Amino acid sequence: MWNSPGHTKFLSWIHDPMEEASARCAEYWERVSHLPFFEKLDVKNPEKTIPLSWHMDGVKVFKTQKVWAYSHSSAIRKGPSIDTKTLFLLFRDNVMVKPHTHDAVGNLIAYVMDVLQSGMFPSKDPDGNPFPPHSVQAQRAGTYFAGGWCAAFACFKADLEGRVLAHKLVRNWASDSICEHCLASKLPQFTYGDFSDSAAYWDCMFTHQQFLMLNPPGKTSSWVNVRGWDISRNLDEPWFLILCVCGPSLLIPNLLILEACQNIKLGTG
After folding, report:
1. Whether 72 contacts 52, CB under 8 Å
2. Contacts of residue 113, Cβ cutoff 8 Å, sequence gap at least 6
């Protein structure tokens, strides 16, 4: 995309209209600058740093087969998926080793994001090994790959099933505690059926560190290695899965809790 005439494909992938790409990048980082994840990123040049959104989804192909797709896109680009998302990895479900495959992907994405945020070709491979001295990779190491443009982590999007697998969520629809952001639970003392302002689950909104502490030893997501990732940047796409798993009667209650928790985390509620 960078080598297209006038870098048009590259700039239009970031934002449409492409003439506003730089200004929209700067605006995005300004709008999230108060959030905890932003401090971890250490964005040096906001107007030339693309906010990158990662997406994970399980998709059925044919009747009995399923694939898991990882893709990324510019968080400031709107439009059809075919125009905005770039496929990163694709796995057939029946050949994956869970959770190890998802763990390996998280570690690879951590490497990719470090490279993308540097704006330069790397000198080492994902395993930390230097490239062979006379290889193409070694010769271009340390040079800009997009004229000074770079990218930084902005968010992770997946449905509940995807987030449970990628981030090893022990708090999910299948457990007593249903929300990774708060104390909402199937148990009566913190029931998610209470939608009042005095509901008990409002008493504690988890920080990122508290969320990590809730997972048992050995159940830490490999996404902790992705610079900037924290639980507040897991953006919800819950409606279809909740409808399938819980049925229509629980769809609205779950959505209300998830939306309220997300608004508080984002500072909009």
Report:
1. yes
2. 52, 151, 152, 153, 226, 227, 228
In a domain, 219, yes or no: no
- Asked whether residue 228 is domain-assigned, the answer is no
pLDDT digits (tens, 9 = 90+) for 53-108: 999 999 888 878 899 999 999 999 999 888 899 999 999 999 999 889 999 999 99
Show the 3-state SS of the chain: CCCCHHHHHHHHHHCCCHHHHHHHHHHHHHHCCCCHHHHHHCCCCHHHEEEEEEEEEEEEECCCEEEEEEEEEECCCCCCHHHHCEEEEEEEHHHCCCCHHHHHHHHHHHHHHHHHHHCECCCECCCCCECCCCCHHHHHCCCECCCCCEEEEEEEEECHHHHHHHHCCCCCCCCCECCCCECCECCHHHECCCCCCCCHHHHCECCHHHHHHHCCCCCCCHHHHCCCCCHHHEEECCHHHHHHHHCHHHHHHHHHHHHHHHHHHHCCC
Where in the sequence is the domain holding 261, given as residue range(s)? Answer: 171-214+238-269
pLDDT at 132 over 80: yes
What one-letter code names the amino acid at 230?
D
**Same-domain check for residues 188 and 162:** no
Closest CA to 161 of 93, 210, 213: 93
| Any domain includes 134 | yes
What is the Cα–Cα distance from 34 to 43, expressed in whole angstroms? 13
- Give domain status of residue 232, yes or no: no
Entry pTM = 0.84
State whether 89 and 162 are in the same domain.
yes
Number of domains in the chain: 2
Please, which residues bridge with residue 72 across strands? 54, 86
Question: How many of the other CB atoms lie within 10 Å of CB of 223?
Answer: 24
